[in-house]
## 1
Amino acid sequence: MNAEDSIYLTSDKKQFYITDFEKLSFLRPNDIWSIDEGLKEILSLINLHQDFQTIYSKLFRVKSTDEIYLEGESYLYLTAFKKSWTELEIKLNSVKAECSSKNVNVIIEICEPCDNPNFENGQFSTRDIACLKSPDYFRIRHFKIYIDTTVSAQHDTFWNSIKSEFS
């Protein structure tokens, strides 16, 4: 494997992310690192594809009626084997097109491998989840697809479009 190929998903890396996904699936729902309610089914559906893998996600929701929630972002980070990179990009662009037709502005970014911003010199080493423990967690080429709005219905459209595209 050459250096360029090493930035894409491999069988070992897929297993690494699946193991972390399973650990996150068993966290208490109120744990800040648990998979957001309503996303587990969608993420599982994507992860069933042998060449795609989710690595990070967030579902926007208003936390309570007495609190103003100013950050309106829902996002999904996904990666793929090099041979399937273009296929994943096409799927994400289909999600963007479907959402755009419903006046939902979706942004897609290609993210190059980078340090894990959640890892701070082992500060979270007591938590057995790779998104905190591994400095290499984001050292993989991936897509970030997201929306940033406080309109809940637009978030529903976004996630429903993702679910539909990967079904």
## 2
Amino acid sequence: MFALVLAVAGCGRFGFDAGGAGDARSGDGGGGTSDGATTGPTGARYGLVLDGNAKPALVAGRDGKVAVAESFVSATTIAGVALAGHAQFESYGLVWLDPGGVPGASSVFDSNDICELRDLGASATGVVATGYSQSGATTPAYGACSLTTAHQDGVAIGVDMAGAQHLDMHAISTSINVQGWTATTFDDDAIGIAGVYGSIGKIGTQSLPATSSDENAYYTRVDPATGEPSWLFGVTSPGLTYANGLDALGGDACVMGSFSGAVTVLGASMTSSGANDVWIARLDPSGHARWIAQLGGLGDDGGSTGTVVATADGGCTAAFPSTGDLIIGGATLPVSAGPAALLHFDGSGAYAGGARTSAWYQLAQVGGRVFGTVTCAAPCMIGSIAYTPATSDVIVMSLDDVTAPVILATARGGATLEWLAAVPPDAIAFTCAITAPVAFGLDVLIPTGATSTAVAVVGVGD
């Protein structure tokens, strides 16, 4: 029932099949920079039914263009674009949409066995995808995900707007799996990846901390031209540790994880008070912690679900499920007020405000401003606003003040949120499953089957 903030001057799921920080959980994004002209109006821009595949879709983009990605086996159609794959168990298809939602270039992430994506983030030339590859052979014709692996190897793959792929990072597993869960981009075009690993792993010439446990968190900043990290650290525990997110703003980053038992995070020793506690840190460009905050109650905080974004004031905003009371900075956030928490820490690491929410908010960051989405399927509170959904609505909010959300757009009808991401410099995008007609701006989205997947874009100004 506490929050511990440490100012730091500088210091130095296996089979991983369950959804983690990269599975429809992370609105992580907004790294990198773009000084281009406004790409469209503020508010709801367009909504588009992608397909009736009933597959959760990842999304990210930049400069008004949006990339959507879904898993498939052998063949699929996304936004009217037919795609084929070779993987025995899973491939991923990606389709670019122009600022009006018209499909264009496509790309297939493929291997002999499995290529699974867990997140997309904006990059300098398009998007960066992270996840893992498992394959008995390298087949160049299948693309950058086709690697010879002994287990699951973590990957980060850049995809430009023409659909061309580039292997930006290869996290090699030596005895147990490695996966990428979250992708972001720094202002020098380096990529940030957070994920999980077991036993030991290696990225470039650098090794992750050796551990005897099979689920541990790692965080890294990698030069995509060489695959070499400029910084890399792991958080290990005899219990479970989760990589809940990494989000870049300029050269800084906010990182978040959750853990049970005792861990050391960037030199700070922590012991959980409940089933899981959460830690949040703001890192400088060298990967040193400007500050670290630990928080948790007697319940379960974070776990495999949560997200964090970097803010313009030098702080971080985080959202995660929480099953116990939180006492932070002298304020109590009782679990009776909601099953999830939304918190902001300022540039000194001090708690600067928070609220209990009706469900876990996904977050995205554009130019240091924070936005969120949530599904509301029964009357719910959005800050002080009593919101009544049509049936199941997705609500899009500005969260510059986490205690006073401003509703920007809604997808009203049979919609359930899947994914949220930044589309710098002036938009965000989300995907949702729809089971009935959904009104979004001027568009009405009609499902093509029992469950369809849709994407929607909201302009947020620059």
## 3
Amino acid sequence: MKRSLCAVILLVFSVAFMRSAMAREAPVMLHLSGKNQPDTLGTNLVEYLPQLLYKEVIEGRVKLWEGPSKEKQVSVERLNEIEQSTATLFTKCNDLFLFEVWVIKKKHITPFTFGIGFVTQNTRGEEVSFGYVDYNDIRTLLRTNRIPCNANANFGTTYEDAIMQRIFVFTLMQYNKKTFKTVIEAKQAQDELLHTRKYKYTAANVSQREITYSISFANASNEQSSINAINILQAFENYFSRNIQDFLNIGGDKLHESTTKAGVSLLAIEITELWSRHGIAGNTTTNVERLKFYFKSGELSSVSYNDVATFNVTVGTRAVWDVIGDKKFDYRLVKINDQLVSPTESIVYVSGLKVSPWNKLLQYQRSIKQ
């Protein structure tokens, strides 16, 4: 567990926190190993954070230091030297170290992160330290950037959310002035601190997933749900054939098909929506965000819902958007958040979105698969 970066002894930092007789403050250091982050967490901070920061460091917007004392900055040239001499990449860091102060009360722990260290190993298993970043230098960046997430995570989770909500597995390396020398010792201390306490943070009270699905003529059958899907496709096809200018305005002018007089020939539509659920068993609401149309002569770029919302597309006497909102038609999931969904997985995930807690969609899919 001993690493060059970890060997820095945490000093008692003068942090201006509100004090009370029931609270105590403790400087801590956490170790996050990339290989120990299960995908069921919904994201992997160790994998994605270095990728986010690399460009900022290279372009001089974020300073990389040799350590928490911030006595010497790691220049871009020095960073390149470290990567080349060790055959490693900053963007492929295996380990993160969070330097924090915990405000500990009887039932809660409020963490305050003040720095992050970046470490990896070369092909011989030797430790390579890239350096340390002050949290204040990246706070806005972490707050305004969404971290890539799979089906288990809330869509819109930012890097700061992942840190504040503890969406990671960690080992407590140092607590107050004590450095733990073994994993067993660290786990003991960790369990004692967290056994009767929870982390205090503000979590979203609505579960959200960005869902992309496709409706296609290729999946036609005699089932009513399939007929409903075909009706949606035909409604758009008929509308664009009668309203060529609207078709051209959303990119149809780039297709050879736009010059024909016989109308357009639509093959499929890919629709991306934001699904929201209040509570584990609450009602699900869906909102169309963008659409992508596939025609016989090619595909169009995605268009936002606002670009097509005023089109008077109808299925019978109903607006097509109302029919889409009902979800009483055949569709195949393509993606949940940033996770691609294979054709064979689609039906299980569709079921999971109806009956499973959304933060356990991966577990639901795997349980059905078994």
